[in-house]
Amino acid sequence: MSRFFLFFCMLAAAVSLGAGGQTSEGRQARKQRVNQQLLPKAVMEEPSGPAMEVPAVDRSTRRDVRQAASGIDSLLAAAWKEKGVEPSPSLTDEQFVRRVYLELAGRIPSYDETLAFLDSKAGNKAAERRAELIDSLLESPDYVSHFYNFWADILRLTERAQKNLPFEPYLYYVKDSIRTNKPYDEWVHEMLTADGRLWENPAVGFQLRDFGMPLPYVDNTVRVLLGTQIGCAQCHDHPFDHWTQKQFYELAAMTSGTKMRPGPQPGQGKPKPGQKRAFQGMRDPDAFAVRRLLQEVKRETDRNGVVQLVLANATNVKFTDRPLELPHDYQYDDAKPLEVVSPKVLWGEVPKESASADGRSQFAAWVVSHDNRQFARTIANRMWRKLMGVGLVEPVDDFREDNPPSNPALLEHLTDLMLKLDFDLREFVRVLVSTDAYQRRAVVHDPTSETPFQFTGPALRRMTAEQLWDSILTLVARNPWTVQRPTTGQIAEIVSIDIRQADAQTVVRKFDDYMASFGPGRYQRSLQKVCGYRGQLLLRASEMPAPLPLGHFLRQFGQSDRETIEGGRQVATIPQILAMFNGPITHSMLERGSVLYDNVTEGPPKEAIDVVFLSVLSHRPSAEDRGYAMQEIMTADDRATGCGNVIWALLNTREFIFIQ
């Protein structure tokens, strides 16, 4: 690394104005900031307690965890022997602590956390020390934050998925489901069957994400939960799989009775030829109330936002079975256009205990049933890819007969484990990170290769945008949790209206209250007052507004706009290089009062070099790197400038950006 280190050190010295680099402008700027604390006070202060309460991991089950991990390792070892491949070397403690923090906490470990692990003597056994670190991370707010980011990309979590609906309650529900470690099958069943308004039952957000698009809803649901792409069959028989258009409509018929706004009741029927449809609310008191309230509001004010608040309160998920017809241009011999289809699942059967329930409940019961192994298989494969970098089936949402798993026996073993754990995702993760395979050096994976990946170690990959942001934040903030996203109760208190009783004045007052607290601009300004720095919010990525603007650091590094499933990207670009060299977030770590600044300036130069390497790369420098770093510090105008250049150099190395 030394040749590149020296190059980056010289380059950083030329561009690191925020560090007081080797220019007169940089030196002058630093002198002007000597007595200023530009970092927000709330971020610089130690938190008084944990950001949230997370249930503890049961340490008495460690023996079971080791046995489960050993079973996975045995299957992999057999595959390696059969293929004639050698496993990657095991991780050192320095490599392990960095990886496990990135994978479970979504960030690099702090200087103190790295030292605490490297110097720990629990049980005098490396395995016990690692097991204890794994358990402590799994019961931390960092774990909740990191896995929220993971699910936000899959579930397309955004605060304004629909123009008139504040989706914050749904986002909070997802985060809280992770915090409480709600069993995955229970969590999914809630989302598939939820009724009510968003702030009354926030699990309805899953259904509302595809508001007004019942067929794409089925496609997205099957893709996310069952790893099967049936979207092509919405318009025609699938060209690359055996799914037919009729099968797609049969499945869609199970959820087609979902209503999201007041209107005609199922079974009301179509008007006869020449007969106009009566007002859609004639049989729906809520629809009549909404119509009345909208008329009053429009007489009272011309502000569109007030109308949207009424419509938000009118959005109320309900379900009643109703028939679904094939499209008018249906062209296959197995049915006729506009023919009513019978609800039917794609494979297997609806569990007997749900056979007499409504269609939506039958659909949900079928999806999460222990007998429906594809549900367990899909989430097992997703979590395997999350930690190992490559799925046993790739893409993870494209299970097909002609796209077999790279290791069928291992995939079925993981499926059995998921079922045995009753869909406890946290415990499943605990087992995976306890395997010898996970605790090996990362290896390069070529996704275009025809040879299946053998998992001789996790695939080498770059940090996600969120991991990179939260890692830099670790070098800056003592309290990155100064603000958390709004809770369901906070939103409900402001926006909830009784549409049958409210008048226009009540609606206007509610709207003004909402805008004062969470309105565009106002909420951002309130966050800036608490944790703002040069236009950036020094918050965990999970607590940031979503989606962020295109120019934001997180979007530059590939955070999804949350419009497509798993839309995040990890493609290198020129703006990313510029952001790392001279962006506001990287400047923040060298401001007076930051965690890294204070740690570096507390001791002599020789100790400062160790602090820098341990803080940024989680290991001490080699003798050669120490020499280069010392030379840079001693020849700089002052120690802070020299240390700043060393920090900037390390931050822009591959070793920092990649998870090795």
User: What's the main sheet like?
Assistant: 2 strands, antiparallel
Broad shape: globular
Structural class: mainly alpha
| Proportion of strand residues | under 5%
Alpha carbon gap, first and last residue:
14 Å
Side by side, the strands of the main sheet go: 1-2
The Rg value, from CA coordinates, equals: 28 Å
Mean pLDDT: 89
Oligomeric state: single chain
- What is the number of helical segments per DSSP (H or I, 4+ residues)? 31
Count of β-strands: 8
Regions with little confidence, pLDDT below 50 for 5+ residues? 1-35, 265-269, 271-282
What percentage of residues falls in helices of 4 or more residues? 40-55%
Description of the molecule:
The protein has 660 residues and is mainly α. Among the domains are: 2-38 and 591-659, no CATH class; 277-306 and 492-533, no CATH class. 50% of the residues lie in helices and 2% in strands. The chain has helices spanning 2-15, 24-33, 41-44, 62-83, 93-105, 111-118, 126-138, 141-155, 168-179, 184-193, 205-208, 214-226, 245-252, 285-300, 304-314, 359-368, 373-388, 408-420, 425-433, 465-474, 488-495, 504-518, 522-531, 553-556, 574-582, 584-588, 595-601, 605-616, 623-635, 639-651, 654-657, and strands spanning 258-259, 318-319, 324-325, 340-341, 461-462, 532-533, 536-537, 658-659. The strands form four sheets. Strands 1-2 form a two-stranded antiparallel ribbon. The longest helix has 22 residues, at 62-83. The chain is globular, with a radius of gyration of 28 Å.
